[in-house]
């Protein structure tokens, strides 16, 4: 008998009082059976009793929970288990792709999510990734589980990629590292670990990648913001940033974008990073780097790690999350790493054990294919050089689109300054368009960018750049 039908049949056999889940009734009644199964109330103290479906329970309440094969219902009077579920709003970034796909306008443009497109507007697989993939297929590998911490060789090369071959803590075996479900998964795991070990807050730049806020909130942390960007001047608000970091409680965790800040495209200079490092030292802050665009900032993946490397050299025990979605174009493969610099190898081992304790009940262990690709590329000097060159190619194409977009807007006679479009780096142009302008761009011109005016330059091509510039001009002029 199907579970649901069985539940309904049982529901009819229960006295009305039980159907309404009256706690007093449940506290005195015993299980109600059908065939060899019983429906038994557990959690008798709470108002919302849970009925479990399975073989008969023993008398202790912990055993009662243990015997459960499935949770059938908590209030038999509902038409559906899900009738109380309100409709959630679409995701502010991924939801744009959904809306874009439904749009049948022929010249529609998706510049919402940061996903690189070639100049023909198509998803791009790096040739070196294809090459590695072909080699992997030929090797006819098995599909056994990874360990909880993922593929050890991947973690090894991923960490060297970020920290550099000469990194002292790496050489001293005092960096704990695990493979994660890309950047998002790493952020969540570390957020949970922070929360478990006493952190109540995390400080993120204002603005930041939108998903940082629910990731850390869901991990149990209160998200607080430090100043980062001055909308009026389209510049880094560096004094505001330093003042805010100086004022936050000692020992707090501060999230920093390692390079190509999302959404503003404005990074501190190396001198400014040094000042941030000094304040972090004075206040004993925990710098937590989100490195999602290594290679997309300067075009040189090695150079883009300069800030986090400097923090390690300055003696900070940083935490770092790496994403291989953008630089390696492995978006859907979910390839990432989380690492923590510790004082000693023993401390690193203990940190690693805690990361694993969080991963195991969450998703058990990470997927293998994407990690094998990255591992193959970064284990070979030749393939790494090819990767650097191909990543540089993507960054250069984006840069050329920045210039073209700005020039076209200027040629159209825009009265606004678009200088920031070429000053910013990385995947995004933080255009300065208002919410109303963004909505008009979507409704009138079928161009999809996020409500904060962020345009994914990775989706701008020689073919659509003029269309985009004209549309922006149309919705911004005279406003
Ligand atoms: N950190 C930052 C700063 C990001 O911008 C993103 C992705 C991630 C982490 C996570 O990426 P991953 O889980 O794929 O590794 N931001 C994208 C995509 C590109 C998204 O929103 O999921 C964006 O459009 O902002």
From TrEMBL:
<comment type="subunit">
    <text>Homodimer.</text>
</comment>
<feature type="domain" description="Aminotransferase class I/classII large">
    <location>
        <begin position="107"/>
        <end position="472"/>
    </location>
</feature>
<dbReference type="GO" id="GO:0006520">
    <property type="term" value="P:amino acid metabolic process"/>
</dbReference>
<keyword id="KW-0032">Aminotransferase</keyword>
<dbReference type="InterPro" id="IPR015421">
    <property type="entry name" value="PyrdxlP-dep_Trfase_major"/>
</dbReference>
<keyword id="KW-0663">Pyridoxal phosphate</keyword>
<dbReference type="InterPro" id="IPR015424">
    <property type="entry name" value="PyrdxlP-dep_Trfase"/>
</dbReference>
<dbReference type="GO" id="GO:0030170">
    <property type="term" value="F:pyridoxal phosphate binding"/>
</dbReference>
<dbReference type="InterPro" id="IPR000796">
    <property type="entry name" value="Asp_trans"/>
</dbReference>
<dbReference type="InterPro" id="IPR004838">
    <property type="entry name" value="NHTrfase_class1_PyrdxlP-BS"/>
</dbReference>
<dbReference type="InterPro" id="IPR015422">
    <property type="entry name" value="PyrdxlP-dep_Trfase_small"/>
</dbReference>
<comment type="similarity">
    <text>Belongs to the class-I pyridoxal-phosphate-dependent aminotransferase family.</text>
</comment>
<dbReference type="GO" id="GO:0005739">
    <property type="term" value="C:mitochondrion"/>
</dbReference>
<protein>
    <recommendedName>
        <fullName>Aspartate aminotransferase</fullName>
        <ecNumber>2.6.1.1</ecNumber>
    </recommendedName>
</protein>
<dbReference type="InterPro" id="IPR004839">
    <property type="entry name" value="Aminotransferase_I/II_large"/>
</dbReference>
<keyword id="KW-0808">Transferase</keyword>
<dbReference type="Pfam" id="PF00155">
    <property type="entry name" value="Aminotran_1_2"/>
</dbReference>
<dbReference type="GO" id="GO:0004069">
    <property type="term" value="F:L-aspartate:2-oxoglutarate aminotransferase activity"/>
</dbReference>
């Amino acid at each position: 008998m199907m579970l649901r039908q069985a539940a309904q049949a049982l529901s009819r056999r229960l006295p009305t009082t039980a159907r309404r889940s009256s706690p007093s009734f449940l506290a005195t009644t015993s299980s109600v059976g059908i065939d060899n199964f019983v429906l038994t109330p557990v959690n008798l103290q709470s108002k919302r009793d849970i009925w479990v479906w399975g073989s008969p329970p023993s008398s202790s309440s912990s055993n009662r929970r243990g015997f459960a094969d499935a949770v059938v219902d908590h209030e038999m009077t509902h038409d559906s288990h899900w009738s109380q579920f309100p409709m959630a709003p679409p995701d502010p970034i991924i939801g744009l792709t959904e809306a874009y796909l439904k749009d049948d306008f022929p010249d529609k443009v998706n510049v919402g999510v940061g996903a690189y497109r070639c100049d023909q507007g198509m998803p791009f697989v790096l040739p070196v990734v294809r090459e590695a993939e072909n080699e992997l297929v030929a090797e006819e590998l098995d599909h056994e589980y990874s360990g909880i911490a993922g593929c050890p060789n991947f973690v090894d090369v991923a960490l060297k990629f970020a920290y550099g071959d000469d990194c002292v803590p790496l050489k001293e075996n005092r960096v704990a590292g695990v493979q994660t479900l890309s950047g998002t998964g790493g952020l969540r795991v570390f957020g949970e670990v922070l929360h478990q070990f006493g952190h109540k807050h995390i400080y993120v730049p204002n603005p930041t990648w939108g998903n940082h806020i629910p990731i850390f909130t869901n991990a149990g942390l209160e998200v607080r913001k430090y100043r980062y960007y001055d909308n009026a001047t389209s510049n880094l608000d560096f004094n505001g940033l330093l003042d805010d970091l100086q004022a936050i409680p000692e020992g707090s965790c501060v999230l920093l974008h390692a390079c190509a800040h999302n959404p503003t495209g404005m990074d501190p200079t190396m001198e400014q990073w040094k000042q941030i490092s000094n304040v972090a030292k004075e206040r004993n802050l925990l710098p937590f780097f989100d490195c999602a665009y290594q290679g997309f900032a300067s075009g040189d993946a090695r150079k883009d790690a300069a800030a986090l490397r400097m923090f390690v050299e300055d003696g900070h025990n940083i935490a770092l999350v790496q994403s291989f979605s953008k630089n390696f174009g492995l978006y859907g493969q979910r390839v990432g790493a989380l690492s923590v610099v510790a004082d000693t190898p023993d401390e690193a081992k203990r940190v690693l054990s805690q990361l694993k304790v969080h991963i195991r009940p969450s998703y058990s262990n990470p997927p293998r294919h994407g990690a094998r690709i990255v591992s193959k590329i970064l284990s070979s000097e030749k393939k790494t050089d090819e990767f650097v060159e191909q990543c540089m190619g993507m960054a250069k194409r984006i840069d050329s689109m920045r210039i073209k977009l700005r020039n076209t807007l200027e040629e159209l006679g825009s009265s606004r300054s678009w200088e920031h479009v070429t000053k910013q780096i990385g995947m995004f142009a933080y255009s300065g368009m208002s919410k109303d302008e963004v909505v008009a761009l979507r409704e009138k011109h079928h161009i999809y960018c996020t409500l904060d005016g962020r345009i994914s330059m990775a989706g701008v091509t020689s073919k659509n750049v003029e269309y985009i510039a004209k549309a922006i001009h149309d919705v911004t002029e005279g406003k």
